């Protein structure tokens, strides 16, 4: 499905690289901007299907892009947003992921863009109302709550990371070369150790993790 997108990043080479990548797979980039003010103006003018934005942009070169994304989702409920960053900006990350009930939103580290298929899959899932969160983002945010991930085994951490990326149980099983039954058991253990509900599916499993972080 072709999407109308806006790309925001003050690094020209990365921004143009993203624009070229998105266009090559059939999407339409209706605006390409380099600062948070231009991002907000473009979104209001174009009403895109999805926004891809950096965290650190002018005018202050701090977290302007992330704060703009939070404001836009408050102003335009349901606006799909994918934030890309070189680091985890904790102060606004949970606000972004909590906006709009946590639907149609993602936060990925820029290194994930190198995995083109995974990046495009994230774009499609977010545009369709899903939630995609980088495993490293999850881990850093969880550390704010005295690192409950310490309760998990190394294998359970792997499974949680793949869940956070939006993968189905069967895909997790294939990637880890284990049975579906083993994945189901790991997921049950994860939810139990993190005091999360066990009856969630799809991107709602990521939302369950975010609910734990907010509680």
From TrEMBL:
Domain of life: Bacteria
Keyword Phosphoprotein: yes
Entries under Pfam families matching the protein: GerE, Response_reg
Ranges where the Response regulatory domain occurs: 4-125
UniProt KW keywords: DNA-binding, Phosphoprotein, Transcription, Transcription regulation
Residue ranges annotated for the HTH luxR-type domain, each copy included: 145-215
CDD domains hit by this protein: LuxR_C_like, REC_NarL-like
Protein name: Response regulator
Organism: Streptomyces cremeus
